[in-house]
Fold this protein.
Amino acid sequence: MAKHKIKVGIIGGSGLSDPDNLIFKYKSEIPQEDARNEFGLPSSALHEGTIAGLDVVLLSRHGPGHKITPTSVNYRANIESLRLAGCTHILASTACGSLSESISRGQLVIPDSFIDRTIHRKATFYDGTSQNYPGVCHVPMEPAFDPRTSRVLEDAAAKIGLPVRRGGTIVSIEGPRFSSKAESNMFRQWGGHLINMTTCPEVILAKEAGMLYAAVAIATDYDCWRDATDTVCAADVLTVFKKNVGKVTQLLVQAVELLAQENWDDHIDSLKNVLKTNNVSSH
Ligand code: ADE
């Protein structure tokens, strides 16, 4: 019998805001106002349901109708609402620009690192204001994404015959503007493979909150570095994402089924231990 009852939070990105897009039938809704926590109001209501007998909860990152800008998303309230709902894992989807010739439009990538270029966001729970996050915690960002949960996403893709690229660095920019050509080329030189506006601080906060976070990124455009291709525009991002959303939902559902088959006790405890040993106030 597992010590930790696992539950999966699914954060739907651009084009995946509507719970009806997910193949699971949600049983109940925690209204947005009821999901308010000490960090504020999450982006949407929480839709709870099951996939293969495992409890899942869906949160829409940009809210119904995609009204919340990447800068205005309350990432702390979102992550805290999933923690308070009992989530042990988070699977996130994200639309990204490709910074690499080898990542084409529509391709799925399971990222393994990030470069944080955001500047206007609260990126830690450990700011001394919360009793739930006491002390000063310097959480290590290697690994940034949980490798075991990421591997489950890769296995799920293999199981349903969906090609995915394993590994990749996401550059997270503040937005809402897209990058200049000079910036885009600089990010390529830095080793970025993908570019978006939301992975940071979401992945950071999930780790601070002790949840195992992995993402599936879908390349929707080539940003603006590639001479042979039109410059990114927001409408195209949504069109390409919507065209591929079926692949993403299939992958998420299959991944939940695989997550349910494993015992995560040691892995969850080891993340909690990382947080403890890196909290300098507890020494
Ligand atoms: N999201 C999707 N495409 C993007 C791009 N090119 N830059 C930033 N965020 C994005």
Q: What stands out?
A: The chain has a mean pLDDT of 94.
